[in-house]
Amino acid sequence: MPKSLRDKVVASSNLLEHAHNLWLQIGVEFGIVCLIVFILIVINRIKVIFKDYTFNRGVFTSIVAWVIYSTSTGMEFNHKGVITG
After folding, report:
1. pTM for this one?
2. Which of 21, 34, 37, 79 could connect to 74 by a Cys-Cys bridge, CB 3.0–4.6 Å?
3. Closest Cα to residue 22, out of 61, 83, 75?
4. CA distance 22 to 60
């Protein structure tokens, strides 16, 4: 980048330390092997739920909501020390 352009660029004051997506964050921080293991765990849990769907219907709904939330925001583990429990 030319120095004349570099002097005019304003740097963001925001800290960019997470990927805004749980799946991407796991892949970037822990590698592709851990991402594949994580995906396999999620798929396994969904398979177990479908074996007895009438009994596990609430659990399935919770997992679907979590997958949608984590895919769209990725903010569930980035509380910066805030105690949420």
Report:
1. 0.53
2. 21
3. 75
4. 19
CA dihedral (80, 34, 48, 61) positive or negative: positive
H, E, C per residue of the chain:
CCHHHHCCCCCCCCCCCCCCCHHHHHHHHHCHHHHHHHHHHHHHHHHHHHHCCCCCHHHHHHHHHHHHHHHHCCCCCCCCCCCCC
- Measured CA to CA, the distance from residue 69 to residue 51 in angstroms comes to 24
Within 8 A by CB and 6+ apart from 78, the residues are 18
Spatial distance between the Cα atoms of 40 and 36, rounded to a whole number of angstroms: 6
Residues in contact with 73: Cβ distance below 8 Å, sequence separation at least 6, in sequence order = 20, 21
